[in-house]
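# step 3/5: fold
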Amino acid sequence: MPTLKEIMTPEVFVTTPSAPVAEVAASMLKGRFGSAVVMEGSVLMGIFTERDVLRAAAARVDLTSSRVSEWMTGDPVTASPEMDTAEATEIMMSQGFRHLPVM
């Protein structure tokens, strides 16, 4: 079974908790990223996904003033590069998410 290191996408979009949702969504669209890793310095604060953008839009908040920290998943489950893909798949399926930050 391959490891995540062997198949993962090396390019990661990183943002801050205080970034506006509209700005991050535009960058995700431009870069074709389905998620953004939310960092405060070197600390992982959360993950912000396209689903979070949809939730914010559906709530009819002002996306130019609403912050990523209001919509992100804080303290996300992470994986190591050495984790095998079967284990990562099981984690994602059992917990109902499509993005798993590899740290």
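# step 4/5: annotate
The CA atoms of residues 14 and 77 lie 16 Å apart.
# step 5/5: archive (pending)
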